[in-house]
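Lab notebook page, bench 4
Experiment: in silico fold of construct C2
Operator: M.H.
Input chain length: 142 residues
Purpose: comparison with the prior construct
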Amino acid sequence: METHEVLEHAEQAEEAAERDEGFGRRAAIVVSIMAALLAITSLAGNRSSTEAILAQARASDTYNEYEANSIKRHVNLDDAAQLRILSAGTPSFESADAQARSLEQDVNTKYQPAQDELLPQAQALEHDREVAEARHRGFELS
């Protein structure tokens, strides 16, 4: 080989090495960007999962409060009816009737309005849970 050919061959090898080095850098950048996106997606998926669990717990608490108010409402109405039945025809009927009206008033002022608010709240929380679960599934797939 002549000196000229050797120099030309060395230059070609150097250019090829530079091209390979540029490709390696670009590949490293792409991989690091993909890793960052994966980390962000993982964090968002975990957050969505936590939101779904929290919304489910809140919905359960709200349904439990709804059921407790329903039980209290029925107990008060039953107590009012029993007071009237047991005191019918007795001298204490007026007092028992006043207590029965007080129990019925409690139902109308305390428990029924709460009942009317709690059910939609619980349903909204269930919807929030479903949205968070769907978001979580989306992040898990990506």
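Observations: The chain has a mean pLDDT of 86. The first helix runs from residue 3 to 87.
Next step: discuss at group meeting.
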